[in-house]
Amino acid sequence: GQNIDQPTEMTATEGAIVQINCTYQTSGFNGLFWYQQHAGEAPTFLSYNVLDGLEEKGRFSSFLSRSKGYSYLLLKELQMKDSASYLCAVRDSNYQLIWGAGTKLIIKP
Amino acid sequence: ETGVTQTPRHLVMGMTNKKSLKCEQHLGHNAMYWYKQSAKKPLELMFVYNFKEQTENNSVPSRFSPECPNSSHLFLHLHTLQPEDSALYLCASSQEGTSGADTQYFGPGTRLTVL
């Protein structure tokens, strides 16, 4: 079966750095997405990785290792507004999106 | 604002009611999706429409009936639902091509409670 694993919940401190991991086992791979979802709001697109390596976008970076079936989302200089759920999704060989259950990130002052 | 709107934002209904959820996308996309989001579970894809044709129906019970009159509008008709159908229903759209990078844009969802 196809599977995406990510931690259920993480806590971090304002101003710090946090890394949210995602491991996947899918039938084929056509890219990995990270979305942010604030409570009661729409998931919003953060990043897309299809090649190995690190993609940086301001305070957020996303890393991919296809050989390890592994990705992480790195958030720097955490702000209170970063409190949200972070969803990892992989596009498989049929171009279907397989979703993880999301990681709830709690930021403390 | 993601360019995808959903109404209503909240809905409470009894098991014998009939209601409809509406989604509209203003992005010029050719594909639209219905997802179910339950607490601590992955998003569940329910239906996919590509160029107004249904291309995916992931074994969804017949009490959920989708309708896509044009590429900008998508409905989900609800009839004789069960309490376990209570969840957040998300609509999304994308411009589907042959690239894995095609990104889905989501609406804010309808929070459905079935009594």
How do the helices and strands line up, and which of them pair or pack?
The complex is a heterodimer of chains A (109) and B (115).
Chain A: E1 3-5, E2 9-13, E3 18-25, E4 32-37, E5 44-49, E6 53-57, E7 60-65, E8 70-75, E9 84-91, E10 97-99, E11 103-108
Parallel strand pairs in A: 2-11
Antiparallel strand pairs in A: 1-3, 3-8, 4-5, 4-9, 6-7, 7-8, 9-10, 9-11
Chain B: E1 4-7, E2 10-13, E3 18-25, E4 31-37, E5 44-50, E6 53-57, E7 64-70, E8 73-79, E9 87-94, E10 105-106, E11 110-114
Parallel strand pairs in B: 2-11
Antiparallel strand pairs in B: 1-3, 3-8, 4-5, 4-9, 5-6, 7-8, 9-10, 9-11
Concise account of the structure shown:
Chain A is an all-beta fold. Helix content of chain A is 0%, strand content 57%.
Structural class of chain B: mainly beta
- Could you give the distance between the termini of chain A? 40 Å
Number of strands of chain B: 11
Mean pLDDT of chain A: 96
C-alpha Rg of chain B (nearest Å): 14 Å
Give structural notes:
The complex is a heterodimer of chains A (109) and B (115). With 109 residues, chain A is mostly beta strands. Chain A has strands at 3-5, 9-13, 18-25, 32-37, 44-49, 53-57, 60-65, 70-75, 84-91, 97-99, 103-108. Helix content of chain B is 0%, strand content 56%. Chain B is built from no helices and eleven strands. In chain B, the strands form two sheets. In chain B, strands 2, 4, 5, 6, 9, 10 and 11 form a seven-stranded mixed β-sheet that branches. A four-stranded antiparallel β-sheet of chain B has the order 1-3-8-7, with no helix packed on it. Chain B is globular and about 40 Å long. The model of chain B has no long low-confidence stretch (mean pLDDT 91). The A-B interface holds A 4, 8, 30-31, 33, 35, 40-45, 48, 50, 87, 89, 91, 95-102 and B 2, 4, 40-43, 45, 90, 100-109, 111.
